[in-house]
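Fold this sequence, please.
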Amino acid sequence: MRRRFRSDWHCRVLRTLAAAGLLVFATSSASPAEEHPATGPLPTLTRAAQIRELPPNRAKLDFPVRLQGVVTYFDHPRGDLFFQDSSGGIWVDSANGQVPAGLTAGDRVEVEGVSAFTDFAPEISLKKIRILGRGALPRARRVAYSDLKSGREDSQWVAFEGVVRWAEEQGGLFTIGIAQGENRLRAQFLDRRGLETNSMVDARVKVEGACASVFNARGQLLDVFLHVPSAAQLHIQEPAPAKPYAVPWQPILSVLQFKTRGTFEHRVRIEGVVTLAHPGSALYVNDGTDSAYVETKQPGPIEVGERVEVLGFPATGVYSPTLQDAVFRKVGRGAIPAPIPITSDQALSGHFDAQLIQISGRLIDLSHQEDDEVLAVVDGTRVFNARLGFAQGGSSLAALARGRQVRLIGICSVRADANGTPIAFRIWLRSPSDLVVLERPSWFTLRHALLALAMMALLIVVALYWVGALRRKVEEQTGVLALRLERISALEERYRELFENASDMLFTCGLRGAIVALNQAGERMTGYSCQEVIGKGIRSLIALEYSRLIAEVFESSEEGKGCVTNLQVELLTKDGRRVPVEISTNFMMAHQAVVGIQGIARDITERKRAERLRDAAYRIAHAAGSAESIEAFFRSAHKIVGELMPADNFYIALYDSPSGILSFSYYVDVKDPAPPPRKLRKGFTEYVLRMGQPLLAHPEVLQELVRRGEIEPRGTNPTDRVAVPLRANDRACGVLVVQSYAEGVWYGEDEKNALVFVSDQVALAIARKQAEEERRLLHMITQAIETSEDFPSALRAALQKICEQTGWPFGEAWVPRSDGSCLECSPACYGLVPKLAPFRSASETLTFRSGQGFPGRTWSLAQRAYWAELSLDRDFIRAEAARLVGFRIGMAIPVLVGQEVVAIMGFFVFEARPQDQGWFQIVSSVASQLGTVLLRKRADEELRRAKVPAAPRPNSWRT
């Protein structure tokens, strides 16, 4: 038996599924698809991850495989072999390979074979396997149930924690059920030695094993479970109670009620009288406070009236508590509670769910369904079912006459919709004696007979007179009927036209779901012709996860309920696509009975897309307000965009127009590193920035732009990309780009429009975060300046605060001389480490005229400036000193009062970072507001000097 299982409507699970490696092969080395053409020699794959990441068409090419790692699970009779190396786990098809005798889990082996893809995910078709020695099982990675259900953990060695619900033999393997919250997972043990059933149930455990998956014939994931070699991989974290029935007894009414201690994940004990029993399936138990539904597989005879102790795991039912995976023991007999007389309206309220009740009505039908005798009973206008199993004597009701008034005694079971609203109820009868026919006195007496004869004679006379009158009327009505038939025919034709030409999908089906009619819109939406779907079940066109909702529609028809509207499901088209639709259904009636179902299905793809976009915009706006920094916001925006489209490769570039620098503030790419800040050139990002329009950059579009000389190709060429400009104050201030290197991943108008919608929110959020940073930085610097003694110390405080916030290692200040002839080096500076002292020393004796050197050009233009590769800049006088300390990038920012420059702040960094350009703009904006504060500090200093001569200050450059 193989690891993979297929499943459909008619057969049980056959094979376990390996993890789906659906991403394009992209590892640190080039993929085989890129290194070699399909007709050339194929490279040997040496890591499990390389095989898992092959697309199906590549995996089928029989790539040579040679791996070394550890066997995590091997069941020779069933052919299940799991292997794992440092890159991950994979399933090995050992059916036609050479497997050495005695191979077990934990053996370190060398596997030789070829890549394969037979049903769902890439695997290894084994040629031979060689044992290298005894090793250790890999360290199990703890996973949640949601990780397992995603399919990506298939074949991996994982650890799962939870509470053991049951333990039993299944298919020759010892199997336990583990619950993690509302989720359950099976773990199958190859060797059960050391495992005891009674001591495991209700214990909290951690199980390590190889993850396997169950899927259907179309390769869709249905379930997951664990293959466990032996009891050594079972770790009991919290043992089960030594005496299970010693746990405290609880009244049924208190089960699932609020408690300040304990949880609902362990078993509880109740005691009560059995009011209904389905041996090997379920019980209903009443203890005087309330009733509970008990799910149990425990075999053996159990009768109504026996008193039992029940151990089970509490779970929420529809209107009453449920005990799942329960066991019980008999403790005697008790008094069966008296049935509660109710009406059908009271039954549907839900207050009597699981209770023994008494209800009356008129029998309208009797049928057989599966192993039950089913009675349809009407009470007023409400129809409900009563069921009696054949094992309880159901066949004895076969001769019961319809139309009789009956009284029923049984267990009330209420069903609700997804919102918890009751929609139907049924009565479970315990035996034929629970149904009593309420006979009426015979109407036929002598007096009634004579009266009937007199009335018949009178009716004959009236009938003879009426026949003559009718004969005249027939002739008159013949013409009227002909005209009416003509109108009905026209209406039927009109209905057919409306049915066929409707823009929404219209369909009709029988009570068992077989499709009877489908209009043209339905053919376009599903891809099937009307002839292809006639007779097929409507469930075959609905995604599997919505089968329960569709089943409720047909169950409602059995109960005589009305229509079900606004049911949102997904249609499965002929080509495998999933189309979200909103279905409204109504019952077709004939002679006051439901004979079929008619429905309207409206495509809500655009509505869903609009909802996702609105949600994305809201989440981006929320992230802008909650993110600690603009870098954290960029990560949040990347994640949100990735939920709308494939966005593994994503970047945001911002343009600073005063300095003319384009910086890649956020850059995630699987091929190329982030480019450094640069002046504008003929790049793809600059083209989008220059045009100011969204661009779907398919390969043919990029080739045309290159041919026209609009862009110059650099770096790795993606297979497809989409870019939109970021706008602030009606001008492009940056570019947002999503690109892909994977074959088969293409972007279209939907992705472009989504990115345009998101880009507006991103641009607003960037402006907002920058404004917040400006206000915070300005407040900090202003406070530091106000507490400074003089103008140099105020400049030094400003430099220190800026460097501390931005992470820049060095800052200096240049101030104009009083006569305005040149700039001179201010005593104010800040250095992060002492090794920067030589660069400071090279600056102290320098002066710059307007337009000269690094500070002089900023002084003359009164604009911020950015220099890259200072050691290579011929105009940079201190290039050698910069090279010695490692400075590569310099920034100069003017401090203004109106149009006057009162100081130049210079900053130097070792390497460019994505966030530096954003800080450059923020600090520049803050500096434009500091001039007045610094000028006031200088005026205060000069006033003090006029009164008291100031003592000389040391020229200290480090704070």
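The radius of gyration is 40 Å. Residues 1-38, 953-959 have pLDDT under 50 and may be disordered.
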